[in-house]
Amino acid sequence: MEKNGNNRKLRVCVATCNRADYSKLAPIMFGIKTEPAFFELDVVVLGSHLIDDYGNTYRMIEQDDFDINTRLHTIVRGEDEAAMVESVGLALVKLPDVLNRLKPDIMIVHGDRFDALALATSAALMNIRILHIEGGEVSGTIDDSIRHAITKLAHYHVCCTRSAEQHLISMCEDHDRILLAGCPSYDKLLSAKNKDYMSIIRMWLGDDVKCKDYIVALQHPVTTDIKHSIKMFELTLDALISFNKRTLVLFPNIDAGSKEMVRVMRKKGIEHHPNFRAVKHVPFDQFIQLVAHAGCMIGNSSCGVREVGAFGTPVINLGTRQIGRETGENVLHVRDADTQDKILQALHLQFGKQYPCSKIYGDGNAVPRILKFLKSIDLQEPLQKKFCFPPVKENISQDIDHILETLSALAVDLGGTNLRVAIVSMKGEIVKKYTQFNPKTYEERISLILQMCVEAAAEAVKLNCRILGVGIGGGIIHQHELIHGSSFCAAELGHLVVSLDGPDCSCGSHGCIEAYASGMALQREAKKLHDEDLLLVEGMSVPKDEPVGALHLIQAAKLGNVKAQNILRTAGTALGLGVVNILHTMNPSLVILSGVLASHYIHIVKDVIRQQALSSVQDVDVVVSDLVDPALLGAASMVLDYTTRRIH
């Protein structure tokens, strides 16, 4: 047996407030009752069920053979806004004792009525799980606000349409706790039309009434615009009198404004008019037959836009009360009217038509799905519900861990002899530096760089440094900000081409500045000279276990090695031509050369500028950086400038 993570039955409390919600809850109650091995059912009745003026509809619950555990008189009469508020307050006062006595595992609440809000509030505050039926729908009045408020209090949701399901997800409800089941009342609707309906029609409308030759009218007050809704009701009755068809008029619900609507009915003599039958309540089974075989239904009840579509009966929906509901093609809306004419025209258009049956709100199998959903509820799960909020911007409130940590970057320097990675702080301090010999192949270099970055990032955690990114490369500063480019590849200065037939570059091209002037390029040239015994001069020596590098080439040039001097001059000239190209493109005010080779190149670069550059840029300042490890600091600044500029 499925026992919801427990070794006992699930105790379910179903609370019903009025005739409308009972029509949706009754099929679920019957389903629960048929499975006594899994469920214990407690029924609580409150609201207008217990008022004579609204038909004492609690009797139909008894006729359905349900034991009513508790009757709560919660309605404060007055039928105005204040009475609705007082009724909610009265229910909140009375419900705690009931819930303490029943101790349900879960309470099933339906819809969007003010009574239901009191039920959900009480259950939520008393740590009772709530299953909400028909959440996520949109109608257009205060009911929307109440329905969505109940949704936020509820732990589980049974919705009727795909759109309602999406609305619940958009409201940040947990998708795993949402069941798209369809409307429970459809389980009865879709199997009801073949019953003996003529006897029911005659009982409520008279022996002389034929199928499809009468109207069902059901109109409620709109609590957000009571005055206008009463005016619409008056116009509706005028149109129905003029239309001259037998009409069954049901009394409105107990919302604010209902008393005024009843006065309008009596003022127009509806209760004594030969074409009208005015009733407080019709049992749901009989009501189904009446709307299924009517020539038209008119009003603003949710039943008109929901249940009646299952039969294809024409519907005229009046005003704004159901303005947001999903409807079938059988519904014709009359949003507003100044006279009866528009409503009368709608009656002429709709009466007697037959539309395709709609299954927007269900397929007749809602109850089995709901029972299965109830069985799946694990009472051992935490009661506190979670909301699935979408991603939002980083919280700008402060956290002590963020205050104490150091915003940093990983800087990578690809030297000719060594690869270097450093953790560099926002203040430009090198927190820690890692150095490894530069491997021979490209694949080995990339693998080593990744390994060094991973090691540095792991060490950064221990050092309480938050790594914002990894930087590699030179840079161009414009108006005090680094230029990053559309794909963060701006200022790849080392790959400016300065010769069409120059040496191969590691980038795959040839003739780049880097192919001439980088540490790796000079190391390559030094090795060639050394292999030909043309590198070493008097006063020089290279230990056998030490790789030949750029520093050996520089040393040889200083000691008078002409070939070494020519290589450095060619490298400096290539760098100078690249700088000239930058001067002609960007017209900077300052050129800073950095790295161990900068001091050896600066004079050659200045000579090339004087010889090759336009006169308009020849006065540019060219200097050598006096920073320690400028290559690492420059690489780090690429990250730190970009990320902090956008955070702050």
TrEMBL record:
Give the EC class as a word: transferase
Which residue numbers delimit the UDP-N-acetylglucosamine 2-epimerase domain? 38-375
Quote the SUPFAM superfamilies the UniProt record gives.
Actin-like ATPase domain, UDP-Glycosyltransferase/glycogen phosphorylase
- Which GO biological process annotations does it have? UDP-N-acetylglucosamine metabolic process
Source taxon at top rank = Eukaryota
Provide this UniProt record's keywords sorted from A to Z: Kinase, Transferase
Q: Name the InterPro entries for this protein.
A: ATPase_NBD, ROK, ROK_cs, UDP-GlcNAc_Epase, UDP_GlcNAc_Epimerase_2_dom
Q: According to the UniProt entry, what is the EC number of this protein? A: 2.7.1.60
One Pfam family of this protein, by short name? ROK
Positions with a binding annotation for Zn(2+): 495, 505, 507, 512
- Record-level Gene Ontology MF annotations: hydrolase activity, hydrolyzing O-glycosyl compounds; N-acylmannosamine kinase activity; UDP-N-acetylglucosamine 2-epimerase activity
Q: Which PANTHER family match?
A: BIFUNCTIONAL UDP-N-ACETYLGLUCOSAMINE 2-EPIMERASE_N-ACETYLMANNOSAMINE KINASE (PTHR18964:SF149), ROK (REPRESSOR, ORF, KINASE) FAMILY (PTHR18964)
Protein's name in the database: Bifunctional UDP-N-acetylglucosamine 2-epimerase/N-acetylmannosamine kinase
